[in-house]
From TrEMBL:
Keywords: Hydrolase, Oxidoreductase. Residues 12-499 form the Aldehyde dehydrogenase domain. GO terms for molecular function: hydrolase activity; oxidoreductase activity. Gene3D superfamilies: Aldehyde Dehydrogenase, Chain A, domain 1 (3.40.605.10), Aldehyde Dehydrogenase, Chain A, domain 2 (3.40.309.10), Hotdog Thioesterase (3.10.129.10). The keyword Protease does not apply. This is Oxepin-CoA hydrolase/3-oxo-5,6-dehydrosuberyl-CoA semialdehyde dehydrogenase. Residues 460-484 are annotated as: Disordered. It comes from Chryseobacterium lathyri. The lineage of its organism: Bacteria, Pseudomonadati, Bacteroidota, Flavobacteriia, Flavobacteriales. Residues 539-639 form the MaoC-like domain. The keyword Hydrolase applies. Its EC number is 1.2.1.91, 3.3.2.12. SUPFAM superfamilies: ALDH-like (SSF53720), Thioesterase/thiol ester dehydrase-isomerase (SSF54637).
Amino acid sequence: MEKLKNYIYGEWVEGTGNGVPLYNAVTGEQVAVSDTEGLNFEQALDYGRTVGYKNLSSMTFYDRGEMLKKVALYLLERKKKYYELSYKTGATHADSWVDIEGGFGTFFTYSGLAKRMLPNTPFWVDGETQKISANGTFLGTHILTPSEGVSIQINAYNFPVWGMLEKLSTSLLAGVPSIVKPSPYGSYLTNAVFQDMIESGVLPEGALQLVCGEPGNILDYVQDGDSVLFTGSAHTGRKLKSMPSIAGNAVRFNMEADSLNCSILGLDAKPGTPEFDLFIKEVRNEMTTKAGQKCTAIRRIIVPEHLIGDVQNALSKALDQTKIGNPLSRETRMGSLVGKQQYDEVVRKVNILKSETELVYDGRHELVDANYDNGAFMSPKLFLNDKPFEKNISHDVEAFGPVSTLMPYKDAEEAAALAKRGKGSLVGSIISHDETFIAETSWKMASQHGRIFVLNRDNAKESTGHGSPLPTLMHGGPGRAGGGEEMGGLNGLHFFLQKTAIQGSPDVLKAITKVYQQGAEKKFSDKHPFQKYFEEVEVGDSLETAGRTVTDADIVNFSNVSWDHFYAHTDATSLTGTIFDKTVAHGYFILSAAAGLFVSGKKGPVIANYGLENCSFFKPVYAGDTITVYLTAKEKINRGVKGRNIPSGVVKWLVEVVNQRDEIVCVATILTLVAKQSPFIDLHVKNVQKILGGLTETTPINWGKMSPQQMIEHLEHGILVSLGEPEADKCFTPEEQLEKWQDSLYNHRKMPKDFPAPFLAEDETLLELKHKNLDAAKQSFLDNLQRFIVYYRENPHAEHMNYVFGKLNKEMWELIHKKHFTHHFEQFGLV
């Protein structure tokens, strides 16, 4: 039987013991053996803290976000084999989708967040700068850096893939290396996904390690700077948290534990309403998805006392219709528990619940293509606690399977009180169309819940469901649920980051944070900042504009154009008792006038105004006042773009408007999209002619088989095709891939060196030479390049077919020629 290997200190290592046998939850057959005996855990942790930390923490947040995306894409291409393994854990296809592709989706989400919102630096400036001296020469701010240690992540058996990836999404993005310790049960699936993550070659050395089996004494070696993330029972979690190595070394500890989550049916949701039907469907789904083995599953069903019978009957019918059996069968809607050991544990908890509450539903389902003897199958079980304020067993005992308890309430006060008797939950849901009931109940139960999910007819079509934690929202809960917090968008990274206050002068803070601070030195140059590409802009680049004297006509005209006739701008007789001496210029006029002063009218790399932040007006501006603007590059944000967008970044500019007395009247931050410098040559004929001056018959080739003249004539043929001379009669790219290929023209990735033309047979030679020599070919090529430029000026809407990219317009032909010319000029070392 295959023994699962562990991945530590950069090697795949097999345990030296007998290990733990792992079984197919459906058939009972052995699948693999997990074994960690003989592993040097102390060495593994040290390897993560040194090699892993050095490699990960030196990357920028932006680059780590790109890393997550590449890993997720690599895994997505191999998902079929993960599903085949997931079925062996008892999971249906729908269960597996949540686990497998839900895990990949978390990586994609965090990659997107990083590329939109995080800096292209290894540190992250957190919050605004604080002015802590009268004259602004002493400032303070905070930066976040990766905590210097390794993160040990102990996961539960119910989600072998998502459980690993949701923790790694934040730790890897934060720059902290991790050791993944999955539950042995289902670890063969975790192992397969992990193998591919390493095989992808995307992750830096030491970033991840895998311990596939019992944890041994790994936690004995944790130290200050390390962290432990635990998902499992509260009993085990508390035991780990109190270990001397953890408690004594200030090791960060995050726990997600038991949770007796509830769902409340509103007083208004009577049979026949959409909410009643939604409630039955939601409870059934949460009882049967993953066979109830979810930390977010509904364990307590809180229902108006007069609707208990209706809910019991409707839910029983819904459960009767749920087909249980082999997950590979299309009929199956609920699979098995993860194994016999978990089955026995659920039975033990069910018997405890029976001691105080009535079992009102225990349908003995006929299994689809499976049997109870071999697999770990269990029918859904529904209890009734008729006195939920007296009988506490339902609020204390969690059976981690398809088990839930009905309980009645009288009013919103009681509903919230019952919800809180779970002593801390990951999620509580309210299904109602009565906003007053929803609001009152939510406020009262919020203190004991990590998430409140409200469902009704208005959001049902797009709702993700009671049991679905989302990467952008916090997953965790107080009290019994462990008090932990995972994901929650960028907040999820804070657990792994050290927050440090930075104090100093404006120039010092600018040097440390790479963000311009008011009062720091400005850098002036003859080149207008808006004429610089994203790579050329430096924090501190500044422009001092000419002055503009505001007139009464400006104020009147702006009132008329904007329709802003606020009395302070238009009625001098109404200013008594105000802060104004006479009619004042509109604040938005000042901002607009400032823009008119600092923008460059000439076309340049600045693509568009992207936004406005923190605009404040400090002093009134009257007719006769003269304003001057200081524009300073405050911060650069790298930006991932896709589709047919120009590769660009965001530059934040500090706008300071002063009057003739050098008093600041307005401060704002504007955001612009700034194009990145293209790595491809432009199509100006003189530029291309200069490059071709270095090409001779003896110029050596760096790759491929072309002669210099063949290369020039090949490029010339491409120009003629873009003019429709001849018109390409066919595109060889399948239509379903065409949009993706056309989008690729807009990015800055170069053409691959080994790309074979799909329209040429393998043994087909290049076009026959038509010019008498290289010089004649060069001149003809340049002449046709000039024809191309003139043709598309005169015919800007013309389109012609390309063999690979389909029908292209002027912009696309220009992009492809830029890439194509650069590709072949590099082939001969000309650029």
